[in-house]
Amino acid sequence: MTQKSALITGITGQDGSYLAELLLAKGYEVHGVVRRSSQIGSTTRIDHLYQDPHEAGRRLFLHHGDVTDAGFLVNLIRDVRPDEVYNLAAQSHVRVSYELPDYTANVTALGTIRLLEAVRASGVETRIYQASTSELFGLTPAPQNEGTPFHPRSPYGVSKLYAYWSTVNYREAYGMFAVNGIAFNHESPRRGETFVTRKISRAVAHIKAGLWQEVYLGNLDAVRDWGYAPEYVEGYWRMLQADEPEDYVLATGVPATVRDFAEAAFAHVGLDWRDYVKHDERYERPADVPELTGDASRIRADLGWEARTKWADLARIMVDADLAALKTR
């Protein structure tokens, strides 16, 4: 059997690292795009996967580049000739997208169409997964599924909408196997420290250890559908193994407020969240999204994928990981 190869943009992110682990475990040769940085720790999430270039039989290859460089993408696709491409690169922080709307659009929106055009121009036959998002739905009432109208409420959501329709357009115009995974919030101990779930889990660990006294959060009433990232990347992979290219929602279907998540996280270590959580309006979004709760019945029926870990268990997993990380310092 011929070894399959995959290219992952955003391999150093949360999803990219879990996806790289999954594909390597399945015997793939994995190529990842890494932005050049002088900052120590930019590859922390994949350091345990790193293989020395001189090592015989290595299957992980890293390429310095960026989705803002069209020429780089064309050359990389032509040289690597991957069987599968996973576009996970993005400026993915919703609140930050209000402060950096131009940059967010350049990476998240135009980066996607550069990649799609690179595949088309190179003539390489491959399958493409585009990381879409529940932020597309915005104000549309929950639960949301593949047929729900879009109404994004942030520069990030708008940029992802452009990327979503670009993927559909290239599929319809050029017959490319290109799909959108509309993933609802998915978290893990590898989530960035400024994202609310990780912000909460880190605070719980530090407060329990006596290092912090409080944590400041924004809108506690926002409702989200939080799942476990390692399970979601399996869904991405399954979408590219399907007979036909289809767009799917990936979600748990179980809603919770930010307040619920904080309460569960603090309760896991025997603390009352109300004693430590403070409000700061600086973390409010100019246009918030009241509720995102997904209906993933279609991908469950078609591909057999299901999110097993729900938000309460996820909170405990993340708190335990941050507690363990403190002990190793």
UniProtKB/TrEMBL annotation:
Keywords: Lyase, NADP. Residues 7-318 form the NAD(P)-binding domain. Its EC number is 4.2.1.47. GO terms for molecular function: GDP-mannose 4,6-dehydratase activity. Gene3D superfamilies: NAD(P)-binding Rossmann-like Domain (3.40.50.720), UDP-galactose 4-epimerase, domain 1 (3.90.25.10). Its cofactor is NADP(+). CDD domains: GDP_MD_SDR_e. It is an enzyme of class 4 (lyase). InterPro entries: GDP_Man_deHydtase, NAD(P)-bd_dom, NAD(P)-bd_dom_sf. Coiled coil: none annotated. It catalyses: GDP-alpha-D-mannose = GDP-4-dehydro-alpha-D-rhamnose + H2O. Belongs to the NAD(P)-dependent epimerase/dehydratase family. GDP-mannose 4,6-dehydratase subfamily. Catalyzes the conversion of GDP-D-mannose to GDP-4-dehydro-6-deoxy-D-mannose. This is GDP-mannose 4,6-dehydratase. It comes from Salininema proteolyticum. The lineage of its organism: Bacteria, Bacillati, Actinomycetota, Actinomycetes, Glycomycetales.
